[in-house]
Amino acid sequence: MSPPQSDYPVIAGTDISRCVLDQFRVAIAVQLSHSLGISLSACYEGIDVGKKGVDFTVAVPRFRLKSKPQELAARAAKEFIPNEYISSVEAAGIFLHFQVKTSTLSRLVLSQIYELSQPSPNAPHGTYGQNLEASGKKVVIEFSSPNIAKPFHAGHLRSTIIGTFLANVYETCGAHVIRMNYLGDWGKQFGLLAVGFERYGSEEKLSENAIMHLFDVYVRVNQDVKAEAASGEQAPTDEKAKDVFRAMEDGDANTLALWKRFRDLSIKAYEQAYRRLNVHFDVYAGESLVTSENIQDAIKALRAKDLLVEKRKSESVTHKDYNRAEPETTEDDIDASPPEGELGEKPAWAVDLNAWKLGKPVVQKPDGTTIYMVRDIAGAIQRYEEYKFDKMIYVIGDQQDLHVAQFFKILSLMEVPFASQLEHVNFGRVNGMSTRNGEVKFLDQILDTAKEAMLDQMNKNQEKMSQIEDPDRTADEIGITCVKIQDMSAKRIISYDFDWQRMTSFEGDTGAYLQYQHVRLCSVARKVAPSVILRNDPTLIDTSLLTEPKAHELVMLLARYPDVVRTALKNSEPNTIASYCFKLSHIVSSAWEILIVKDQEIELAQARLLLFTCAKSVLSSAMRLLSLSPLEHM
Ligand code: ARG
């Protein structure tokens, strides 16, 4: 089937071969722009989706015309001639409300969705919802970024979920995306870890579960440090760790080999957990991979631009202030506060950002060791050299808002060519991510807990349970969906409480509910076969039989999916898509009793089955965009 044809002029930014709704908006704009005496594209921009059963609404005041909006609206409504796209228009004060012609809508939308949902080698799930908004753009997205030998906390989980979503959206909009994990794999604590491994390490445990074992070793050796500090005498462990890290920074082969093994094994373990989450990375970058050459160059550039100022301990209010933008970074575990006098005698180097209310962040410590801040500055430059990206997005929690604002500002003061291409996508905190056994420390624990909660639920219905082919995998998938959906249920900046009970319920807008609705849509076709089998040419189906308001509402929502994807690209909000999924699920679930397929006259059954088939395709696309794996059975 060829894309819908139209005699209408083409308006920039519209693409009826991907979004049929554009066609209806053009149909409105063509007449309305004439009545109002404005340009076609200005008029087009002013057409919004309507509320409460209204298909499209135009708020006349937005065009800022000389005459009274009420009068203009009344005149435009009177002049408008209904056609095959728009069946009626009504002036309501300063607004114009348009209704779309149901038969044209259903015919064009359903055939487009059906057509674009067919799998192809390049697009195994079809292309409906895709657009070219970011086509030709290279976008680096940095997300997840856990710290080796430390817990994978809720902030890392959120970054992983949101970052994967963004990567999917950018790809859907035509961008070339590089998914980057910036591991916290450098800093003084790696010296400590090496010392700890010598004392408490076990090769066997390391190969069994690197993440857990390194964490254990780290905790134990930290206890040693604390005990020594408390005794008030010497701190040999601490001293030794510093020496080891210094040796690492100087390139000592033995320690580096050990460190590399820790890193490699940790990545292997992370990859497993990420796979379970349907997440992957193109690059495992890390703080360790920002080269000392690049760091030195960045410092030089800062100095050349006259941006470096001294910062003494006396002026840094507290050590906390000195380090305040580094909540869960890899720094300074060994000596939470530097020895008295260290900052006092030898100054640190900082950049004065007080003019922008961003404080005076330190970029180089008095002892010359590198820190988080300068690694981010040099790291961005290094990445630009490597990727020449059009955009680089950092998905980092709002606890580091200040840190990110600081290094973005510093880069812009350095006048790097890509300063305006950096974007911080932030998010709020999660409280209380713990299980019955206490605080959750690793990604797998979170996923296991969700899965167990699902298995508990499923076990309540033994009959159903016995029909499920692979209960373990199904429970895992639903559990993961629940964790992700909970995270995307509100705007990302909003903090939330991790709530196992509510999250894993089948009631309310949860992941389990969403999977259930998808499964239900999959089962319609199974349930009505063999008496109804969908014709594979939708043009042979009489969609004009879909006359019910519920059908109109559902088709209209399906038609809006490409718009919703574009909105999500603009606002970087997973919630935009998650809300859409729930809206769609709610309409579908209220449609079952009205748009019955079973035992209907064959033409009507075909039309309704086509509608539900399209709804299933769109719901599954939207779920995939959220990185979920839609289930067919459960
Ligand atoms: N590893 C850091 C942490 O856990 C997050 C890294 C964020 N990315 C960055 N470029 N600073 O706090």
What does this structure look like?
Its EC number is 6.1.1.19. Belongs to the class-I aminoacyl-tRNA synthetase family. It comes from Hypsizygus marmoreus. The protein is 51% helix and 10% strand. With 634 residues, it is of the alpha/beta class. Among the domains are: 80 residues, 2-Layer Sandwich (Gyrase A, domain 2), CATH 3.30.1360.70; 176 residues, Isoleucyl-tRNA Synthetase, Domain 1 (Orthogonal Bundle), CATH 1.10.730. The strands form 5 sheets. Strands 7-6-5-11-12 form a 5-stranded parallel beta sheet, with helices on both faces. Strands 1-2-4-3 form a 4-stranded antiparallel beta sheet. It has a 3-stranded antiparallel beta sheet with strand order 8-9-10. Strand 11, helix 15 and strand 12 form a beta-alpha-beta unit. Helix 4 packs across helix 21. Bound molecules: arginine (ARG).
Structure summary:
Belongs to the class-I aminoacyl-tRNA synthetase family. Residues 318-327 have a biased composition (Basic and acidic residues). The chain contains 24 helices and 16 strands.
Features:
single chain, 634 residues, alpha/beta, Gyrase A, domain 2, Isoleucyl-tRNA Synthetase, Domain 1, five-stranded parallel beta sheet, four-stranded antiparallel beta sheet, 24 helices, binds arginine
Distance between the termini: 35 Å
Identify the CATH architecture of the domain at 450-625: Orthogonal Bundle
- Using the coordinates above, name the CATH class of the domain at 450-625: Mainly Alpha
Q: Which term fits the overall shape?
A: globular
CATH topology of the domain at 450-625: Isoleucyl-tRNA Synthetase, Domain 1
Alpha-carbon Rg, integer:
29 Å
In percent, how much strand structure appears in the residues? 5-15%
Tally of helical segments = 24
Present as ligands are: arginine
Given helix and strand content, the structural type is alpha/beta
Q: CATH H-level name of the domain at 450-625... which superfamily?
A: Isoleucyl-tRNA Synthetase, Domain 1
